[in-house]
Amino acid sequence: MAAAAGKPRDDVPVNDEPRPAAMDAPAPETVPSAPVAEAPALTPRAITLSVLTVVLAVLMAVASAVPLPYAISGPGPTRNTLGDQAGVPLISITGAATYPATGKLLLTTVSTAGGPGYPVSLGDVLRGWASSSLSVLPVEDVFAPSQSRAEIDQANQADMISSQEDATVSALQELGYTVPTTLTVDSTVPESGADGVVEHGDVVASLDGTAVTSFQDLSAGMDAVQPGDTVTLGVLRGGTPTDLTIHTTDDGTGRAILGLFIDPTFDFPVDVSIKIDDIGGPSAGTMFALGIIDRLTPVDEANGKVIAGTGTMDLTGEVGPIGGIQQKLIGARRDGAAWFLAPAANCSEVVGHVPSGLTVVRIATLHEAREAVVAIGDGTAASLPHC
Fold it and tell me: What's the pLDDT at 142?
């Protein structure tokens, strides 16, 4: 039982009788008091130092609370694309047989503070600089100065939806499915060969006389074209077949491009639904595609192994680079991964930053990523390429 204030606890014995006064106590001795030393007078120097100390303390307190123009990135959560989220499978498939999986394919993320809606203080920045798992960058290197938090969240969500769609197309095509696609022109690149020639709403139907029924067809056709070559693009304009002459340009890497922004729509032979909350951006595309493949094949590719990874996925099955690779490596190892699939274009950032116990495999395409998962699962991964 707890004691009440001002009263003894009832579980402790207490003597309530008054204590008798001491008998024959000697008179107290009188001790002469010592002289009291006078406090030293404050000098102008001491006063100045005191004032400066107070001012510095106030400035430090203010600086610690004022938002600073930096963004701080750290390891974010991982999600198993072969697992559940709140009891719902992250990847659900209907229209085809699916198979159980015993391994884990972890998509990795980066948590970022700073920018609109999430300011960071001096203390946050100092902790970020002192930590080996955090990255501190000028905020403009991470967020566009004109973007609001709502715009950033909206763009991240749009990228996530697009990555899921592209991953589904690439995974099905890797498995041999045909995915009929309507390639509708949204806009053209200013001053490109298509600018002023191709119109919004045109539907791409052929390239130099060869039918185009998917983005993969269009990309493969452009592989044979040199920058500066002239091609004939067949389109449906208002339903009417029309041939357009386009002078190609260089995309900056030596590859010929038409200068089109395509808005594709797909006729999926298999219905794939991806359920994931609170994560945005395009970098999970590769792990989504691998998860779809594992679920649609009788072979248990991961075979009990915990494999993490990252990378964008385009409609041709190419793995693209992402940001925050070093933080994703840390998050992967933290959550039990022994293997990590990294985009080839990120390898220079991986070297020297691999956590102990994690092996990084270099991948450039979905096909390479799939072969790597199979090799890891069956224990033949020793010859896989590393960063």
Answer: 86
CA 92 to chain centroid, in Å, comes to 22
Residue position matching structure tokens 């006063």: 47
Strand partners, 273: 92
Among residues of the chain, what percentage have pLDDT more than 90?
Answer: 68
Q: Do 293 and 101 touch, CB atoms closer than 8 A?
A: no
E-only strand ranges, 161-218? 181-188, 203-207, 210-211
Q: Are 339 and 307 in contact (CB under 8 A)?
A: yes
- What one-character DSSP code corresponds to residue 344? G
Q: What H or E segment, with its residue span, contains residue 123?
A: helix 122-130
Positions in the chain short of pLDDT 70: 1-42, 44-66
DSSP 290-341: HHHHHHHSSS-SSTT-EEEE--EE-TTSBEE--S-HHHHHHHHHHTT-SEEE
Which residue type, as a one-letter code, is found at position 357? G
Each residue of 53-83: pLDDT tens digit? 655 554 455 455 567 889 999 999 999 999 9
Positive/negative CA dihedral, 4, 6, 12, 15: negative
